[in-house]
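@channel sequence for tomorrow's demo:
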Amino acid sequence: MTAKLKAGIVGGTGMVGQRFIQLLDGHPWFEVTAIAASRNSAGKTYEESVQGRWKLDTPIPDAVKGIVVQDASEVEAVASGVDFILCAVDMKKDEIKALEEAYAKTGTPVVSNNSAHRWTPDVPMVIPEINPEHLQVIEAQRERLGTSTGFIAVKPNCSIQSYVPALHALQEFKPTTVVASTYQAISGAGKNFTDWPEMLDNVIPYIGGEEEKSEQEPLRIWGSVDGGEIVKASAPHITTQCIRVPVTDGHLATVFVNFEHKPTKEEILSRWQAYRGRPQELELPSAPKQFITYFEEENRPQTKLDRDIEGGMGVSAGRLREDSLYDFKFVGLSHNTLRGAAGGAVLIAELLKAEGYIQAKQG
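structure tokens (generated this afternoon):
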């Protein structure tokens, strides 16, 4: 049996860090050997560091309870004990950029849940089923950073995964205009109802910075690699509204779309059913067998019922129909802390390993 790769979780005490811990418990390829967080947590066991603030329904895995949390700023010390890092820190953007580059320069691959490097030209921002070819830009990034093995790869904003996969499967028909409204769970803000009781019986029609991300990040995902950089696509034109709603997990989107070549409803459903990406071809451990699931029922997908489809790593769609102003409209749904955050980052790490970008360190 091949030895598992050693994973370090930087930002391991927050909600996404906790998801990383949960998802890697018993993972066939990876094991957590180091956890790092702020100085306030450093020196405590992981169990002590999250006492009273463990946010998940499952208990803290026994394998990590006794790991002593390290100071995330002590880059060399943390990097020396791992083959790669999953990063989810709560810091200022410039500080995150510097920290992630510092880890990469030690020769350590970094898979980031943070937004800081999403627009760095030579950092791939990846949904593994959609744009795995963007990983080739890592070669140029390594040259810039002066390392032969280290690099940074990032996952995109959680909310776009509720509608971008469904649109991507229809690229042959050339979407031209997209209007999307997302209805986003409170875990997207790193909170639950105990932390945020004012969200009960409430809707907040604003999430800072979310609409800009939702309109622009899909264009980078649909972009191309040119001269060692990712050049974003020029179409479709996307406009969004992003709304916080009182649900624990799951981002739901309502989508209106026009096409250059309008498909039939049957063609759309056929493309959604048949779509497979690189993770499905490689049979990666976290990959959903069915990437996009369509519900025929008029009242599906529902956030509570359907967010956990394919272990929270699949996306779903429903209510596809022609529209009076646009060609078609539909509803999409994804699990924001699994597919959209920690699970998506773990899937990226699996893809990077399968493609040879992450390997065991020598010596």
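heads up for whoever presents: The chain has a mean pLDDT of 97.
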